[in-house]
């Protein structure tokens, strides 16, 4: 969906919105009427149907334009700012050698019934994502990628066996908030299995996680859509140095 955003308090006119969606109906005039009805219920008034295309025999894709009367206040938008610099692979490796004097161990997996490994592979595998090499490329990071549909007890056991410094999970399947339940189950299991203050860095990634909900989920960091390997590596280096600093007398 795209829209014209006017400054808060601007009453010079309504904003125009372009909205696209699919309905489980066969393409005909009745379906087009249903699309306009839905658009009006969503607050577009008047609404104009500009495109309708069959998506197989039982679905239709629509594009609708319309006026909306809602105001957007950008001052009320809360954004989670990154509190650490983005490091190159060379800089991250050097920081790990300085602070740990050994390789940083990262265990990754898709937990529960989630079989979508594209996200976790983009971060961990050497081929990487968006022109960046994955964490396997970093000489000072040992990556253990457990793949898909990993049970939480197995993840905890593998993390303990590998003496993991960080655990990365990916959650794409979100029916009935499965990503939330699975992540909370995972964090609780780690806190039960490890002494206080020795739980690995817990990181979750996926398109449906809400920024700023780490405390609720019991984890240290959330990464959303479009995250690159260097962002994750830089965060791990940052969090590792913070934790090590806290342990110093």
TrEMBL record:
Residues 103-243 form the B12-binding domain. GO terms for molecular function: cobalamin binding; D-lysine 5,6-aminomutase activity; metal ion binding; protein dimerization activity. Keywords: Isomerase. The keyword Hydrolase does not apply. It comes from the Bacteria. It is an enzyme of class 5 (isomerase). Pfam families: B12-binding, OAM_dimer. InterPro entries: Cobalamin-bd (IPR006158), Cobalamin-bd_sf (IPR036724), KamE_N (IPR028991), KamE_N_sf (IPR036843). The keyword Repeat does not apply. Its EC number is 5.4.3.3, 5.4.3.4. Gene3D superfamilies: Cobalamin-binding domain, D-lysine 5,6-aminomutase beta subunit KamE, N-terminal domain. This is Beta-lysine 5,6-aminomutase beta subunit D-lysine 5,6-aminomutase beta subunit. It comes from Intrasporangium calvum (strain ATCC 23552 / DSM 43043 / JCM 3097 / NBRC 12989 / NCIMB 10167 / NRRL B-3866 / 7 KIP).
């Amino acid at each position: 969906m795209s829209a014209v955003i006017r400054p808060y308090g601007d009453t010079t006119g309504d904003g125009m919105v372009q909205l696209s969606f699919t309905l489980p109906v066969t393409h005909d005039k009745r379906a087009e009427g249903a699309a306009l009805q839905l658009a009006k219920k969503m607050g577009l008034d008047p609404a104009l149907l500009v495109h309708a295309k069959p998506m197989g025999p039982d679905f239709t894709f629509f594009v609708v334009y319309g006026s909306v009367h809602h105001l957007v206040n950008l001052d009320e938008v809360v954004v989670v700012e990154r509190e650490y610099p983005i490091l190159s692979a060379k800089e991250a490796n050097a920081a790990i050698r300085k602070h740990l004097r050994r390789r940083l161990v990262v265990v990754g997996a898709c937990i529960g019934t989630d079989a979508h490994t594209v996200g976790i592979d983009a971060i961990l595998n050497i081929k990487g994502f968006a022109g960046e090499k994955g964490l396997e490329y970093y000489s000072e990071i040992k990556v253990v990628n457990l793949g898909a549909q990993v049970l939480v007890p197995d993840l905890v056991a593998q993390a303990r066996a590998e003496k993991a410094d960080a655990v990365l999970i990916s959650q794409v399947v979100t029916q009935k908030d499965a990503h939330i339940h699975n992540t909370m189950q995972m964090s609780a299991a780690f806190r039960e299995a490890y002494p206080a203050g020795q739980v690995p860095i817990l990181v979750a990634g996926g398109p449906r996680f809400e920024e700023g909900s780490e405390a609720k989920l019991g984890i240290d960091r959330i990464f959303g859509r479009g995250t690159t390997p260097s962002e994750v590596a830089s965060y791990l280096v940052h969090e590792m140095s913070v934790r090590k600093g806290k342990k110093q007398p």
